[in-house]
Design a protein that fits this description.
By secondary structure, the chain is an all-alpha fold. The protein has helices spanning about 10-30, 30-35, 40-90, 95-105.
């Protein structure tokens, strides 16, 4: 004869019993063993370790990218300052501008009237 297996159906009252037993197991420290987590404890620790490393690497990458962006801004500002200074030097290096600047500063120096004399031996 065939054996009949009767499967018990879940009832709403079983949820209360399940919660009560789970809370009791948590209090007594048997909950994880009841779920058979002790067999996979090493795997769980390894996964948490990898997740912690992933978080640390992402924080390091983010901070270095922030530094790169700040340095790019500084380089742009320095390039602007450099071009301004180059323009100023180009303007001041002309003969007329040099003579006018010297007159404005009250200097007696002016452009020579005749070329320099070369002394021969």
């Amino acid at each position: 004869m065939k054996e009949r297996t009767t499967l018990r159906k879940w009832k709403i009252a079983d949820i209360g019993t399940l919660l009560k037993n789970s809370v009791d197991a948590i209090i007594h420290g048997r909950f994880l063993m009841r779920l058979h987590v002790d067999e996979y404890f090493v795997h769980i620790v390894y996964v948490f370790f990898l997740m912690a490393l992933l978080i640390l690497f992402s924080l390091g990458i983010e901070s270095s990218l922030n530094k790169v962006e700040e340095n790019k801004k500084k380089i742009d500002e320095l390039e602007i300052i450099y071009s301004d200074k180059t323009f100023e030097v180009a303007n001041r290096s002309r003969r007329g501008a040099v003579e006018e600047t010297l007159k404005a500063m009250g200097s007696d120096i002016r452009e020579p009237e005749r070329p320099a004399t070369v002394i021969k031996r």
